[in-house]
Amino acid sequence: MAIGEIGHVDVVGSKVGGCHRLALTDKDKQARDLFIKWAQDIGCTLRVDAVGNLFLRRKGKSDELKPVMSGSHLDTQPTGGKFDGIYGCLAGLEALRCLNERNIQTLRPIEIAVWTNEEGARFKPAMLGSGVYAGVFKLEDALNTEDESGVSLEAELERLGYSDLADLDDPGCHQYFELHIEQGPVLERLGIDLGIVSGVLGVRWYEVEVTGRSCHAGPSPMDLRSDALVGTSKMITELTDMTMKHGQDSRCTIGELKIPNASTNVSPGKVKFSLDLREGSLDQLNELETKAFETIHRIAYHHQLEIGIKETWSLPPCPFDTKCLSLIQQACELSHPEVEPHSLVSGAGHDAVYISRVAPTAMIFVPSEDGLSHNECEYTSPDQLEKGCDVLLNTLILAANC
Amino acid sequence: MAIGEIGHVDVVGSKVGGCHRLALTDKDKQARDLFIKWAQDIGCTLRVDAVGNLFLRRKGKSDELKPVMSGSHLDTQPTGGKFDGIYGCLAGLEALRCLNERNIQTLRPIEIAVWTNEEGARFKPAMLGSGVYAGVFKLEDALNTEDESGVSLEAELERLGYSDLADLDDPGCHQYFELHIEQGPVLERLGIDLGIVSGVLGVRWYEVEVTGRSCHAGPSPMDLRSDALVGTSKMITELTDMTMKHGQDSRCTIGELKIPNASTNVSPGKVKFSLDLREGSLDQLNELETKAFETIHRIAYHHQLEIGIKETWSLPPCPFDTKCLSLIQQACELSHPEVEPHSLVSGAGHDAVYISRVAPTAMIFVPSEDGLSHNECEYTSPDQLEKGCDVLLNTLILAANC
Ligand SMILES: NC(=O)NCCC(=O)O
Ligand SMILES: NC(=O)NCCC(=O)O
Which residue CA neighbors atom 8 of ligand 1 most closely? Predict the structure, then answer.
């Protein structure tokens, strides 16, 4: 069985199908168990921490040294693909298999990490497991986080047996490397199969609540309504247009929208939506936020609506470590001298962002077909995937020997 | 206990609170039971039909004649008030109490009907019980209708004990009168406490499905997305603007909107929304529909989205019976000669619309404060409610004696 089969979704138009494997569901556990088994089959030892992050360790010559770490996540979006996250985990395992097969011993131990709830689709925010590891989130807060149906992360860790395994001994991390699909169109457009990720856009998540006045769809004249959905729709249109003009790296996404107590013949009195803003620099992110809030409040005023905005997650723009970046550069030259790797900024947050707060960190990207991700049609060719693996292998060897 | 206490919701700003009493829930059953008890207490007999409509009958001198009927519904919207529907039922009961107290015998029997699932909030479409009674919907189709969680109307009728009671003997209906709150602003603006309803706007309900392409909120440049929600938002804005210009009686409401598999960091690939269009004449309704479809398809084309539209309910504009209207006019003169009742068209569909297909029918309105309904702040003053009751009483006496 392949891990990608766990949560597989058949989708017309997708080359390999999609995946629905939300964090800490039975399917996620199945995927993790298979991954652990494969790692243990090649002699790795398992450590689980208090938030369910997995660490699979290959001994080093000087095993007391801090390990070099690589990793990613096995959870997916509800409409996820077969590559986001899982690729980085499997590539790490593949690198360890190679080292075994060639009898290569490294000075430092190497650990492959599987971070809990990277996607932020089931529990919010994203990158919760790596955030706890890096001390960005308090363990207690993370454990108390609930999914939409009110089930807490802690309850799921207990149910799946991770709480019993939790080992609080942390050997630290010498350097962290994450291999991931780009999830955007840059490498494909350039026709370059390898990307060296110099950093990640800043992100802010908000919950916006729009309150108008519900009324009957029939007798209420159009001009006497204060319809929260009509106002919200104007906001979404203008937020999108504003962001388009703001800059190359500007992003604005409304991914969730709910009308509580919705009914076909009720002009909605309340709407709640999520807002995801991204930018390349802190100044630009602040400016984008200011403009977004102005847009929301201006339209609300015009439509006699009340607004509540709550920030739920924030990630400042994150530059990666120059030493780690040059190790990846070296590894690219060793593995694929025919490719001139492209340096780019990631639009997606990754566990690497949080790990970079406690250890030198950098990332490697391979292209995504059509720039697609968080979509069942997500695809990267076997050849491109292999190139990425090669670079990760050489990076880990270089890093684990100094 | 008052029926309005069953499902009561406390709401800041509401004079008497709101009601959440969806069709065929335990709360609806409780309300129906109390209503039946009160009617039986004054000597009425109960008949239940196969779709759970209740008929509470006061004998006539010539009891074999077709009854004069009055009625409305006890179910509410999720954000319903204390008057929509329940007022008409209680006013009918109050009229029978008056006849008893004054020892008035009528030639024909009088029946007070409680129609099942008028609101269309739990089971779709609206006015399902009266629609079955009038032969507009097949009984079997109505029984198979499911709510959002997949529970069928039939299962609820069985669970609540109505199926066992179902009596298929139908004594018919001589004339039908429904007293209701206006749910709009017309009477209040004119300062007139009594309305004679000459007819009801035509209504069409649709389910619209918008399909784009989901992608990652971070790495996907704004100009490369085909975001189903961004497209839908433009549609809602333009549909609203178009309808505003279309005419005095034109209505367009998007009451429900869902993003399947929504996630904060996913630009939505699919959106489903409900569309409720209303107009005064069939020609105008057709024109409004044509313009609405054009708007949706034009925006979809521009945003590279695919569209599916399914009509789920349709109600042609309905004129009421002139003889019934003049009986109400007479009753107004008898009860409140100081009020010049206003003739108006209802924007809301009512059970009376379906009953009008099988019996001469007309309606009486009393004002709604701020024109509000399908809102917990719905309100009509005791004095206005009493005026409406007076007119209903005299209407029933006039109708039941000829
Ligand atoms: N790579 C990825 O999907 N990360 C989730 C966090 C984000 O929204 O950027
Ligand atoms: N009166 C009322 O709320 N009727 C429901 C059907 C409609 O939407 O018009």
Answer: B265
